[in-house]
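<backbone_tokenisation>
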Amino acid sequence: MPKSTKYTAKKADARGHIDYSAEEDAVWADLYAAQEQNIHNYMADEYLDGLARLDLPKHQVPSCADISERLLDMTGWRVQPVPALIGFKQFFGMLADRIFPAASFIRSREDFDYIEEPDIFHEIFGHTPLLSDPRFAAFSHAIGKAGARAEASDYAWLIRLYWFSIEFGLRRQDGQIKALGSGLASSPTELVYSVTSNVPGRDPFDILTILRTPYRIDMHQMGYFVLDDTEELFAAAERDLLSDIRQARALGLLPNKFPPKMTAAE
């Protein structure tokens, strides 16, 4: 996750509601409109089914309190606004308590197509559809419970499993590659890239390989992992993930496929 942000968290009132400006609602509306056709073209059925269940507003930023009421009935989860950046320990702890931490700000027009840190569009439009499915909610809960037991030195390893599945996972559906992850659902550019581009690799879903694979938050991924069946992901929730991390650490990180980061001098 980024170490700093230019955005300021918005505070919820006693009911858990946040007042967004007309411009912020307009950004939400334009993001939703920009993604609506793409998600139907490129997202997996599990995501689309969840989006239909939640029936999110299209023209204004939803209230986390309202989304929580729906999720509590469906899977026992709720959404809680948090500051723009939280640490891994807090993140895993909240997942372990079936609370999804939602950054409360919405991106600016400047960051419309791609934003490094999560915003409320990513959190609600991207994540909550899968959290309305008990199977995906159980996987996120398992990640949280593993993180709550892990040492701080394990966090960077464990988060890769979440990153390459819930955030940027792909799946094979009726013989076609479809996007599953929330980071793809909420990105006007990376969603299409992840499914159609010849640039990134698309490897079979394998937990030890995923735990050893570096990722970047400041650009589109150079590789994705593809589930042949979502049962592969749900089975991971039953594994001893801390044992998997120990094996991955012993094997070491795989080579970084990303181009070198440019410096100001370059």
Remarks:
- The chain has one domain: 22-251.
- The longest strand covers residues 78-82.
- Residues 135 and 231 are 9 Å apart (CA to CA).
- Confidence is low (pLDDT under 50) at residues 262-266.
